[in-house]
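User: I'm curious what two different proteins look like when written out as structure tokens. Can you demonstrate?

Assistant: Sure. I'll show them one after the other, since each token string lines up with its own sequence. Here's the first protein:
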Amino acid sequence: MSAATSRLKVAKLRDGGHGPADGRPGPLSRHTMEHALPAGTVLFEQGEVPNFQVILISGSVQLFGRSADGREVLIEVVRAPDLLIPAAVLTGSPYPMQARVPEPSRFLLVQADPFRDAIDRDPHLARSVLGTLAEQFRRMVRQTKNLKLRSAAERVGCYLLVLSERQGTPGRALLPYEKHVIASELDMTRESFSRALNALTKSGIAVDGQEVAIHDRARLAQAAMPDPLIDPPVPDDAGRQMLDLIGRVKG
């Protein structure tokens, strides 16, 4: 399915093409739609005013920023479960980025006005959203420190260490996107990304296409210098908090 076709599908959702996420009555269930979308879907455009709070319940979303001259960079990859740019929804402000689906993913779409009203009425929901905003702020600070305090090789090395841990394969990292997309997220060119990978072969890695073998994790960590304030493990309660929020939305 093309991005244009998927985009049209989302537009139909905005017009009420699907019913509530479940049949049970709840404060937000009648204003909520659940939908699965394929890779290539554009959820919303940069500059668009939110009509929905989009909740990612499985899969991932790439957030892209675009300059006035059309240059595009990957700002962040959001992984389930999470809210997509709730700051824009809460303030009724334009989205600062475009959201694109890189893999089959599932979402809840909650109409923006009822979502804001529910936050006003429900202190538990408000605390859950506030906690999500706080974690997203911390993620952005970590990303800024990563880009400003590290060399290209350190950024790539830490990326591989975190990626392999997330994938559950400490001795191997499978690059999830094309190298130029990952390079964009790490604020470097594809050529710089390739040079950094090549430099890290001296620190115990071997590259074969999209697969990176980590033969000596300790040597790679010594070269990349991971920092727990920049590269923390995902806290166990983060997913639980989002699942609680999703439960409140679905009623």
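Here's a second, unrelated protein for contrast:
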Amino acid sequence: MKIFAICMVKDEIDVLEKALEAALPWIDKIFLIDHASTDGTWELIDQKFHHWDKVEVYGQITDEFTDGFRSRAYNKFRQQAQEGDWWCRLDFDEFYIDNPREFLAKVGKHYDIVQCASFQYYFTEKDAEEYQRHPERYRDGESINALKFFACNSSEARFVKHRNREWKEDSL
């Protein structure tokens, strides 16, 4: 079983590297799409991530946004996947608390979609005080380790089992 991810970013220079590094241990390949970033994200992708073995850069898209952009990367790279492999919608600001590879290996063969449980972290007054004392704990994507209060209040499809089909951009 392989896990392929499609990650679309826009102006995420502050968290992109940490997000990609967090996914690398469990992912086989990340297909990266930049959607018209203006903060240096595209330049970082081109200069650094373009050369990572597990990252394949789809390119930069400047059209008006649609979720269907992910279908472009899927259709371009789908021949790398086989039956039984999984595709992940990897959002740049989401970090998995469990290893998806271990979890997906236990999913029954009759299931082909896995939903996520999204935990929203909140910056409280206590966090503001702590930030004033130790701002370094909240820089360079480290806030994920510093924030303690959260709610689990949403769920979306994050993994789908590979089927060798074309994905139409307007079919979402």
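A detail about the second structure: DSSP finds six helices and eight strands in the chain.
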